[in-house]
Design brief:
The protein is mostly helical. It is built from six helices and two strands. Strands 1-2 form a two-stranded antiparallel ribbon. A hairpin with a 2-residue loop joins strand 1 (28-32) and strand 2. The two termini are 32 Å apart.
Length: 182
């Protein structure tokens, strides 16, 4: 069965990609060679959980591509692909919770953060540097150091900022069984 994206999800992908670019360009703290503490990934986590894995993957891919072109003038495809993969992972983790029901309790926080820690460790600590070596023939020590730093920074950023964003989003939703109507 083919499931099409809703207009709401398509708009979220466009807006999400634009916000990803803005955060990726202007809300970063440089830490190591071309490696930053990013606020775009906690935002990607929120969008992926709310709109699903396909939207998360597309926001990561489109947002990172546009960020690279507007920042460096060219794209670094290995990390762009990884931004899509991590958006996909966040989206699948979001299937274990439902922020739209207005609940994001400790169990949900732990569940999401277990997924994001494992996802970030694999994507940024293993896949991104391996692709850098295979595609760009980058020095192994440099890219694996970058990958481990990025994985650690993203784990912390998504764990703190992402969790706070999701908690705030859930608080804006009408809880299931509530008598309050729109």
């Amino acid at each position: 069965m083919k499931k099409e994206l809703s207009v709401k999800t398509i708009v979220a992908i466009g807006i999400g990609s634009a916000v990803f670019v803005i955060l990726g360009r202007f809300a970063v703290i440089p830490v190591f060679t071309n490696t930053n503490l990013e606020t775009s990934y906690p935002f990607l986590a929120l969008m992926s959980v709310v709109y699903g894995p396909v939207a998360g993957a597309l926001i990561g891919l489109i947002g990172h591509t546009l960020k690279d072109f507007t920042t460096y003038g060219s794209a670094w495809w290995s990390w762009i692909v990884c931004s899509g993969i991590i958006g996909l992972i966040y989206g699948f983790a979001g299937r274990k919770i439902n922020l739209r029901q207005g609940v994001f309790d400790k169990k949900d926080m732990i569940t999401f953060n277990v997924y994001q820690v494992i996802g970030n460790a694999i994507v940024w600590g293993l896949i991104a540097p391996t692709l850098d070596v295979l595609i760009y023939s980058e020095p192994v020590n440099k890219v694996y150091t970058q990958g481990l730093i990025s994985a650690s920074l993203n784990i912390v950023a998504v764990g703190i900022i992402g969790t706070l964003l999701m908690k705030a989003y859930a608080a804006t939703q009408i809880k299931q069984g509530s008598l309050k109507k729109d």
